[in-house]
Amino acid sequence: FYFPIRGRIEPIRLLLVDNGLPYEDVNCSDGWPDSWKPKLAFGQVPQLIDGDFELVQSNTMLRYLGRKHDLYGADVKEGAHIDMINDGVEDYRLAYVKLIYQNYDAGKEEFIAGLPAKFQYLEKLLK
């Protein structure tokens, strides 16, 4: 369940599509039933429903799907490496969200100029 935007659900969609995993994308932009929101663990979406198992929190969903579909590395060290990269990407995402909502016009050029320095770390980890 999510809105018809990329937002917090897009990495989950990409994981599912990239691995050929079936899913149903349910748009909740027309409103939530009054009985639904209180059942969500943190009262928010996105939500993943896998049979009778329900999750919210997008990074938790990524880790769950990675483990379930054997995409989480061969051992605990590889899994930790994946977590580290995921958390690093989350830091980039949070900086971008802050720019968009707090300082876009004044901060855009500086933000873009700083991207190569930030991405060099990610590129090194992904080699």
UniProtKB/TrEMBL annotation:
Enzyme class: transferase
Known EC number: 2.5.1.18
Keywords, ordered alphabetically: Transferase
Domain GST C-terminal: 75-127
Every GST N-terminal domain range: 1-73
Family matches, as Gene3D superfamilies: 1.20.1050.130
One cellular component (GO) term of this entry: cytosol
PROSITE patterns associated with the record: GST_CTER (PS50405), GST_NTER (PS50404)
GO MF annotation terms: glutathione transferase activity
Biological process annotations from GO: glutathione metabolic process
PANTHER family xrefs: GLUTATHIONE S-TRANSFERASE (PTHR11571:SF141)
Assembly and binders: Homodimer.
Protein name: glutathione transferase
